[in-house]
Amino acid sequence: MSDPKTGPIPAVPSGRPPAAGPDQAAGLLAGRVVLVTGAANGLGAAYARGIAAAGAHVVAVDVDAEGLQRLSGQLAAADGQGSIRVADVADWAGAHDLVRDCVAEHGRLDGLVNNAGVFAMARAGTESEATVRRMLEVNVLGAVAWGDAAVAAMRTQGHGVLVNVTSGEQMGRAETAVYGATKAAIATLTYAWAAELADVGIRVNAISPNAQTRMAEVLEQFRGAPSGQNAGIAPEANVPLLLYLLSDLSVELTGQVLRSYGPELMLTTHPALAEPVLRHTAWTPERIAEAVTARLLPHLAPLGMRRARIEYLD
């Protein structure tokens, strides 16, 4: 793999250990307890299986009871440690009760994977109130509820790791505005929680995964044609990055969003104020128009997802 501006990109930066792969992960999370929301299918089920294979006890939460039973059988067949809990992640009280039960049963909660999410598409001006509300309830309210409950438990024990699940859609793509907005909210939660909790031993990062899941089916139904969305990328391809974020390999990392896309690993930049910063003692609409045209126009960001070279000024 290479970058047209910088040349070949090393698979692993010099001096840094590689994230554990399927054959290297055994024991990486030994003795830990990790809760995964939205664990019955797709990425969530792959995360749960990977966490159990790494030696942790995984607590799998989902509203899909049948899917959880299927996952339970898979964990048992692989000699993994795990338990299942049927719950709607948008239930605030239920989230706090279940986390308290988890700590009471296992004596600890080392990690939370805030994975549960609802994906839907609509063109601007044709949104469904019911669909929008459900996306907000599951993707945002649910993430806050489980994160809040987990943080309360982790503060008491003095350590813990939160891994939120966001998406490239957070950067703004046509026909996924609301879903993207919920994932942008998850990124902001990640940045803010990390800043607040760094001094109490709780790390907060996010994974931006890619895989061929039910999301591709929604795209195909909406557009009436094969989407090619993440074609050929199995949910399991994202597990090494998740295990890295949950493990001590990333002990110095917090407040970051890492993106997995098949063979590619990328860092998602934080929102930032862009240089140049213009100053005037008395701005008027006309002066702003002149300043934008003369000074800011060359620096305007393009629409949608893009790759940017990072150069921090402070």
From TrEMBL:
Protein name (Swiss-Prot/TrEMBL): NAD(P)-dependent dehydrogenase (Short-subunit alcohol dehydrogenase family)
Region Disordered, residue ranges: 1-23
Keywords: Oxidoreductase
CDD domains the record matches: SDR_c
Coiled-coil annotated spans: none
UniProt superkingdom: Bacteria
InterPro entries: NAD(P)-bd_dom_sf, SDR_fam
Alphabetical list of Pfam families matching this protein: adh_short
Sequence similarity: Belongs to the short-chain dehydrogenases/reductases (SDR) family.
Organism: Micromonospora echinospora
